[in-house]
Write a structure and sequence with these properties.
The chain is an alpha+beta fold and 256 residues long. 25% of the residues lie in helices and 39% in strands.
């Protein structure tokens, strides 16, 4: 049976790939605001290169002392007085310009499929492509009505579903999450056959950042949550950036 299936795939694969790929690429370069999942968290790239994710919170709040790491101003009064100085005003103007640039442009969260260690395949029953992955309890902040990935939460179209379960391994709690993207079998097939090279990309507008607290036994866990409004969701080849799937119609600004 396995030999028969492999033979069929070799015969039909070129036809289905040509029909399913968009022929367009997603422009992710040094001028893009990119947050990419890696083995130890989220790495900021493009024009966010060199920042930490909590810097986005500092930018949103125009907190010049935190963003520029000005440790001498360690009280509220010192910070307030510094903002009235020429240096403080200059730094505030620079940070305000950076905030406007970031808030008015799209950001991209990139999730390579290799981190979906619990499944990345098409569900024939629900007609969705399912990505399943595990997150530490203290890195994941579920909010009802939002799609939640690590410290990021997105308001998405209702056609996108996410399900999670809390599980315990040894002395730690985890979330087991499944993201479900609606698509046809013909769209899903070339993604499955090339899934080791695929990445999920969420295009969004950043609109809020805040610290959330929750109690875990005797510990108070504080998690920085970045909130965004999803503009589109893609599945791309992470090397060529070719778009294999787009939740919404592709914008004309994307490269051919």
């Amino acid at each position: 049976m396995k030999k028969f299936v492999l033979l069929i795939l070799f015969v039909v694969l070129p036809i289905i790939e040509i029909a399913s790929q968009t022929g367009k690429t997603l422009k992710l370069d040094s001028l893009s605001s990119i947050l990419e999942k890696n083995y130890d968290g989220i790495k900021l790239k493009g024009k966010l290169e060199g920042m930490r994710i909590d810097n986005l919170f500092d930018i949103y709040n125009l907190d010049i002392c935190e963003y520029y790491d000005l440790r001498d101003y360690d009280t509220e009064l010192k910070r307030k007085m510094f903002k009235t100085t020429p240096e403080g005003k200059d730094l505030l103007n620079k940070l305000n310009a950076k905030k406007k640039d970031i808030m008015n442009s799209s950001m991209y969260y990139v999730f390579p499929f290799r981190y979906a260690g619990y499944g990345k395949e098409y569900n024939l029953e629900t007609k969705t492509f399912d990505l399943s992955y595990q997150m530490d309890w203290d890195d994941f902040y579920p909010i009802q009505g939002y799609m939640n990935i690590e410290q990021l939460v997105f308001k998405c179209p209702s056609s996108v579903k996410q399900y999670w379960k809390e599980r315990k391994h040894s002395d730690r709690y985890y979330y087991y999450n499944t993201l479900k993207l609606p698509m046809t079998e013909s769209q899903a097939f070339p993604i499955e056959t090339n899934r080791d090279n695929m990445a999920l990309v969420i295009e969004f507008k950043y609109y809020n950042g805040k610290w959330n607290s929750r109690q875990a036994a005797i510990f108070n866990i504080r998690t920085l949550v970045i909130q965004g409004i999803c503009s589109n969701i893609y599945i791309i080849d992470k090397n060529s950036k070719e778009i294999y799937y787009s939740l919404l119609p592709i914008k004309s600004t994307i490269s051919n």
